[in-house]
Fold this protein.
Amino acid sequence: MNRIAQTGSLVLLLAMTLSGPALGQFHPGERPPGLPPGPPPVAIEACHQLTQGNNCEFVGRYGEQVSGTCVVFPERLACLPDNAPPPPPPDDDEAR
């Protein structure tokens, strides 16, 4: 391979590497900026062998017993606490 082709290949590889995040590509387990965090692992584990709509329970971060219902999140099934706040309204841009 000649020197010009090697340099071109290196520049292309570098450009592809640096442009990944700008193109909306994220590593597994990462969430795009601006999205709320996903359900905690304990809420996911609480619904491990259950189905959507089943009652579930887990121990919260302060040692309290949390009761809820298994719901489907984008990532997977998780226990949504009974006292969870409602989701925020959609942005004006999303509503259009």
Observations:
- The chain has three helices and three strands.
- The beta strands are 55-59, 65-72, 77-81.
